[in-house]
Amino acid sequence: MEKRSFSSEVVFSDIGQISLKNTLFYPEGGGQLSDTGVIAWSGKESQVVEVQKVGDVVVHSLEGETPPVGTQISGTVDDERRSGLSRHHTATHLVGAAARKILGPHVWQAGASKYVDRARLDITHYRRLTRDVIDNLESMVNQLIVEDHPVTTGFHSREDADRKYGNTLYQGGAPNYREVRVVEIPGVDVQACAGTHVSSTSKLEAVKVLRTERIQDGVERIEFSAGPDAIKAAQRERALLEETAEQLGVPIDQAPSAAQKFVKEWKELRNRVSSLEKELASLKSSDLEGEKIGNLTFYAQNMGGTGFAEVQKLVREITSEKGTVAAMGCSKGDSGTVILAKSDSVNLDCGEILKKALSTVGGSGGGKESYAQGACPENKLSAALSKIRELVS
Fold first, then answer.
1. Strand runs (DSSP E) across 333-380, as ranges?
2. Counted domains in the chain
């Protein structure tokens, strides 16, 4: 097992930050979050919450008291966090290697992030990843895990690294250093890399692809989990599938077809309801009597608890006729809603009229010349409609 505890001496100290003579805390780098953990000295203890490399100096950010220069400390790296980050960093190399093998050499890393419980890899590719491609990629990665390939790290001069491995070494971008840290899984993948890794692929246990998406033209994002997190992800998916099948009242293997049938029937019912609402709005508009005000016909009605969508359809039905203005109110509990609209041929500003009318009854609203809506107390709806009529005339 990798060493997680060490002893060292503080060589730099500032409020909440220290540097050590030597450290096992790994700084953020290579798209990987930093280690966290604890340092202790003289019966005191502080949490290491972040680690960054500034030039050649590793800076530890602390939560708690800051030990002064010269203090002898003991440090302990959070093992669970380090292990999770290492698994997901190595898994990123395997996913990238599998993607290049399956899709072709045009695949290049466009970005990557590694977390404790998951990782994501952005790759260049000219089309969306199909279900077959995702399945093949996942199977290939897990086969590499079973084969237990060693994961090695070493340092090379930039010239030697370029000569030995070529340009594909820099999937994560070319470093600005004369010495290059190379992480190699022989026969599988080799990259210049600054992160932590497991010692062999079998340590990953398993990898599960969680989702893919196109984040921009020509770039596909693959999100995945490794190790115990991959098992947990599979269990979560299984639980969701079982719950869905139970709700649909069918066995798991029939859930997709049952869901498809349900959605089809729901869409048909939704279309039917919409059609009936239009018919109802048409019938209601024919029942309403308009008041002739100059060259226009004014319709006003408090529709009470009628649904907002239905009232909207009624307003549209009325104002589809030339020379019409409709002011309709509806309510839900103590809240009232008012809609004011006009046909194109009418010279009125519905937004301004509604705003003025509702301000007189403790409400507010506004909109465009042709359509406006607002709110007021339910018991003020009739007064608002009366004020609108007054302003229209």
1. 335-342, 364-367, 371-377
2. 3
188-226: pLDDT as tens digits: 999 998 889 999 999 999 999 999 999 999 999 999 999
**Token pair for residue 99?**
């993607």
Which of the residue ranges 17-31, 163-177, 346-360, 371-385 would you say has the lowest mean pLDDT? Answer: 163-177
Neighbouring residues of 63: CB distance < 8 A, sequence distance ≥ 6: 16, 46, 47, 49
* pLDDT value for 269: 87
Residue 51 inside a domain? The answer is: yes
Residue type, 286: S
Domain CATH number, residue 32:
2.40.30.130
Asked whether residue 67 is assigned to any structural domain, the reply reads yes
Is residue 260 one of the residues assigned to a domain?
Answer: no
103 plus 233 within the same structural domain: yes
Give the E-state strand segments of 21-144 in sequence order. 37-41, 44-54, 57-63, 72-77, 109-114, 119-124
pTM tops 0.85, yes or no: no
Domain span holding position 63? 5-77
Instruction: Report residue 291: phi and psi, to 5°.
Output: -105, 130
Are 62 and 159 in the same domain?
no
225 and 354 both lie in a single domain: no
Whether 188 and 225 map to the same domain: the answer is yes
Q: Which of 90, 12, 89 is nearest to 55 (CA)?
A: 12
Report CA-CA distances (Å) from 22 to 47, 57, 58, 320. 17, 10, 9, 79
Please write the tens of the pLDDT for every residue from 112-132.
999 999 999 999 999 999 999
